[in-house]
Write a structure and sequence with these properties.
The protein has five helices and eight strands; from the N terminus they run αααββαββββαββ. The protein is an alpha+beta fold. Helix 1 runs antiparallel to helix 2 and helix 1 packs parallel to helix 3.
């Protein structure tokens, strides 16, 4: 009866708890990185960072890890890049990213879009459907696209997948829902 001893049970329990812990850590790391990129790395001056650090304490993240993430965020010379793409049924997507490696980001976006019924567009292929307001911080739809319920579900799934990428900050779509 191999695999039926006390140590096998401990090993499997530990693997399950480690997987959950790693998922929680990944979410918190992303929150800290985004908050540190948007503002100061000083929690007293950046309320979003303060909230992310509180979440890190809730999941028992070590201080060394937190300090390493903040140091990396402070020393990273990232750049903001807007990508244009198409979702299911030709719905326009504007994807704002903050990345230190544009080649990795564009490859990830191209892969995820093509895998989920979309494609990455050329510069200017989608931006004309939107109007930029508030100094480049927001976009307003000029030409909405009507979508069916099935397309709306596909689009929602695609948006959830895209938001999970570390470099993606914001996504706008012209789908009229």
């Amino acid at each position: 009866m191999s695999g039926h001893n006390k140590f096998s049970k401990i090993k499997h329990k530990k693997a399950a708890t480690d997987k959950l812990k790693a998922q929680n850590f990944s979410k918190v790391v992303k929150m800290i990185q985004i908050a540190a990129r948007k503002g100061s790395t000083d929690p007293a001056m950046n309320p979003e960072l303060r909230l992310a650090l509180e979440k890190a304490k809730e999941v028992n993240m070590p201080k060394d890890n937190i300090n390493r993430i903040l140091e990396k965020a402070a020393n990273t010379s990232g750049q903001v890049i807007m990508y244009e793409g198409f979702g299911p049924e030709g719905v326009g997507l504007l994807i704002k990213t903050y990345t230190d490696n544009p080649n990795r980001t564009v490859a990830d976006l191209r892969h995820l879009l093509s895998k989920n019924g979309g494609s990455l567009g050329a510069s200017g292929s989608v931006i004309w459907m939107f109007e930029e307001i508030i100094r480049g911080q927001e976009y307003k739809v000029n030409i909405p696209t009507e979508v069916t319920e099935e397309v709306k579900e596909e689009l929602d799934n695609l948006l959830v997948i895209l938001e999970e990428l570390d470099d993606v900050e914001e996504i706008w779509t012209n789908a009229n829902t």
